[in-house]
Specification:
By secondary structure, the chain is of the alpha+beta class. It has ten helices and 20 strands.
Length: 353
């Protein structure tokens, strides 16, 4: 028995974003012209409907089985082999991700951007030859978590002196109340190794047990407020301090932070964290507006509250946005040693890349 991989092609470079996502990000002029009104949608969210574009592109793997004389295989059903796709960052195929197949194909998802991978197919006691492919080095890294919307890795974006590490901080929506994490989604979250859930929902005090706790994650409940109030409402400064304290502790990672839809409170904290780390404004705005592709409604840089947040941060001292965000965080009571630790943990320098 030989197993021959048909696709992806050897040394293929594959984009993990969909064409719709790339068109959205490329249409800078169109997004900049969107009016300042935010459109919220929280009830009756249809994750299977036509307006859900936040999920990643799926990489299709196809193969064929070539039988040789003398093969004796048990359990094979004609046309639907129960094969497994193995994917690793190492040519010797250690620490594999495992994906199921249906028929002679299967789909890969939740891979990292800008990464070389090795692939083989295993059926019964046989394995195909190992094939190499890589993923396009272009953020964002969107994630498929069954039952959820608007989930992505905060990492992969360039900063002044490197890039944000992937696999450390994830942002997204809640897992119950408005959308509901499915069993398969729970397994996908578990595969990400989430150790800390940072829950910013002030209205979720009655959630006694988070679904993510079933993965072994520790839930930190820390109500927050978005946009201008994030900067001006000092009663929420303890939440900011708590967020950065969690980020400063190596044992907290990977971290999943969220509100309802991963749009406003999550978007504001993501903007603040990204600005501090050294993302440029275009990247920060792209990351914020990308939520529009989910089912949670439209987010625009021209919204009064979002623009007000930017203006308030710009009023802080410093020549760069990173310096201004740092000045605000120090004013909010985050210690300098805490910020230095966050920077060390989250930035992959160009020398280390």
């Amino acid at each position: 028995m030989k197993i021959q991989i048909i696709r992806p092609a050897e040394n293929a470079v594959l984009d993990l974003c969909t064409p719709e996502q790339r068109r959205f990000l490329a249409d800078e002029a169109g997004r900049a012209a969107v009016s300042g009104e935010l459109i919220y949608k929280w009830d009756d969210l249809d994750l299977s409907g036509p307006n859900e574009y936040s999920l990643p592109a799926e990489i299709e793997v196809s193969f064929r089985l070539v039988h040789e004389k003398g093969d004796t295989l048990e359990g094979e059903t004609a046309g639907t082999p129960q094969a497994l796709i193995l994917v690793s960052e190492y040519p010797e195929m250690k620490d594999c991700l495992v994906f199921p197949t249906k028929g002679h194909s299967g789909k890969l998802f939740n891979l990292k951007i800008g990464t070389a991978y090795y692939l083989c197919v295993q059926y019964d006691r046989f394995r195909s030859a190992v094939r190499r492919f890589s993923t396009l080095d272009a953020a964002p890294r969107c994630l498929r978590i069954d039952g959820l919307t608007n989930v992505r890795d905060f990492g992969g974006h360039p900063v002044t002196d490197g890039r944000v590490r992937q696999g450390m901080v994830y942002r997204g929506c809640e897992t119950e109340r408005h959308v509901f994490l499915q069993y398969s989604g729970l397994q996908q979250m578990k595969a990400l190794g989430i150790r800390t859930e940072f829950d910013m929902r002030g209205e979720a005090t009655d959630v006694a047990h988070s679904l993510l706790e079933l993965t072994g994650a520790r839930r930190i409940f820390s109500p927050a407020w978005p946009y201008r109030e994030m900067v001006t409402a000092k009663q929420f400064y303890p939440s900011i301090r708590r967020f950065f304290r969690i980020l400063s502790q190596p044992g907290s990672y990977p971290i999943y932070f969220h509100c309802w839809g991963g749009a406003d409170r999550t978007g504001s904290y993501a903007y603040l964290l990204g600005a501090f780390l050294g993302m440029n404004r275009k990247t920060l705005v792209d990351e914020y507006e990308f939520t529009t592709l989910s089912v949670c409604g439209i987010r625009t840089r021209n919204a009064v509250d979002f623009a007000g947040m930017e203006q308030l941060l710009q009023a802080y001292p410093g020549e760069t946005l990173s310096q201004k965000a740092t000045a605000f965080l120090l004013d909010a009571g985050v210690s300098l040693s805490c910020l230095e630790s966050v920077r060390r943990l989250l930035i992959l320098s160009s020398d280390d890349a």
